[in-house]
Amino acid sequence: MGLATEYQETHKWIDLLDSVKDIARKAGEIILKIYGESDVGIRMKSDNTPVTRADLEANQVITEGLISLNLGYPVLAEESEHLPLEQRQLWTRHWLVDPLDGTNEFIHKNGQVTVNIGLIEQNYPLLRLVYVPVTDTCYYGGKTIGAFCQAGKEQSATMKARKINQDNIIVLGSRSYGNA
């Protein structure tokens, strides 16, 4: 790949991520609006996990937003109807969405919720985004562009990987799933 082509490819992904950030922020606005209400519309799904109005409304905004990008990629979202695995296995590239990760945390209003959107190709992430509505912080990146963090309207900061010290590994868990 020539330098000019690589530059164009990189900017294509950055432009796409800018659009996805806007979609995630719109979903975050809905989540925060409902977060402030006393009745968030809790019901139980068939797998006995909770879903709220915020999950469903954010799911709709994200799904419609991704489809409106006109890329032709199917959307696999947690709160949408899923096609059979046999059909999904034929997808070479698709969006993977959890519109409100941390529904239990949302219900308990502890602020530990995120919007997760990824563009997957052959089971590997090309682009990924995690948006924290409560702090208006967005973590995003892609295979060929690196990883970034953006707080509010500030300029994005580059995130760098570092080698893990095998003697000093930290493991995190969720308050809601302490037995996992």
Automatic annotation (TrEMBL):
GO terms for molecular function: 3'(2'),5'-bisphosphate nucleotidase activity; metal ion binding. The gene is cysQ. One of its GO terms (biological process) is sulfate assimilation. Keywords: Hydrolase, Magnesium, Metal-binding. Its EC number is 3.1.3.7. The keyword tRNA-binding does not apply. It is an enzyme of class 3 (hydrolase). This is 3'(2'),5'-bisphosphate nucleotidase CysQ. The keyword Metal-binding applies. Pfam families: Inositol_P. It comes from invertebrate metagenome.
